[in-house]
Amino acid sequence: MAVQISPSILSADFARLADEAAAVPNADWLHVDVMDNHFVPNLTLGLPVVESLLKATSIPLDCHLMIEDPDRWAPAYAEAGAGSVTIHAEASRAPVRTLRQIRSLGARAALALNPGTAVEPYEGLLGEIDMLLLMTVEPGFGGQKFLDMVLPKIRTARALVERHGGEIWIQVDGGVTGDTIERCAEAGADVFVAGSAVYGSADRAAAVETLRANAAKA
Ligand SMILES: O=C(CO)[C@H](O)[C@H](O)COP(=O)(O)O
Ligand SMILES: [Fe+2]
């Protein structure tokens, strides 16, 4: 499993997003948290900002939609050129249709599960996804404490994914730091989102490399 690091611009300076993207040239992805103040109690950014960001960086965008109606909006992010589009299982009413639309528009399709959502009921969707996102905090805000209770679910997900051929990536998001990343990698995650651990550091690129090195220790 190659380690991939996806810095979350949630913790970046929103007035300087192009510079903040340029500060992490060694990132595999740029994680974009779309929040609508309904599915989660916070409001961030939407499609117009993603469209501008796509013009400002060559780093592929990993769009994490924390919105009430992902079935309506997710295809537009894929159409705009996002490299990966993630919908929440708790929000989607038609996940198969939406995940297929995302793929048919050329993006990787991903399904996200909140900390309290079990993975087993979604085994049937594994054929429809390129990545499974396991939230390691309750979605809505950056800078929260990593929830250790999700570690067994990462192990379960890794076992399920291996049974399905092992090609689906497992992403973790929330409270991922130089300290917690090793536990996530050891449990079976291979894509790591980090907001405050990267954008809370003076040297963002060095923070990305520290995360990558620590994940590789597992
Ligand atoms: O989806 C998210 C929150 O809902 C963010 O991606 C996540 O919280 C990143 O921030 P941090 O690394 O600071 O926890
Ligand atoms: Fe996120």
UniProtKB/TrEMBL annotation:
Substrate binds at residues 8, 64, 140-143, 173-175, 195-196. Keywords: Carbohydrate metabolism, Cobalt, Isomerase, Manganese, Metal-binding, Zinc. SUPFAM superfamilies: Ribulose-phoshate binding barrel. The active site is at residues 33, 173. Its EC number is 5.1.3.1. GO terms for molecular function: D-ribulose-phosphate 3-epimerase activity; metal ion binding. Binds 1 divalent metal cation per subunit. Pathway: Carbohydrate degradation. One of its GO terms (cellular component) is cytoplasm. Its cofactor is Mn(2+); Fe(2+); Co(2+); Zn(2+). InterPro entries: Aldolase_TIM, Ribul_P_3_epim, Ribul_P_3_epim-like, RibuloseP-bd_barrel. One of its GO terms (biological process) is pentose catabolic process. Belongs to the ribulose-phosphate 3-epimerase family. HAMAP family: RPE (MF_02227). Catalyzes the reversible epimerization of D-ribulose 5-phosphate to D-xylulose 5-phosphate. This is Ribulose-phosphate 3-epimerase.
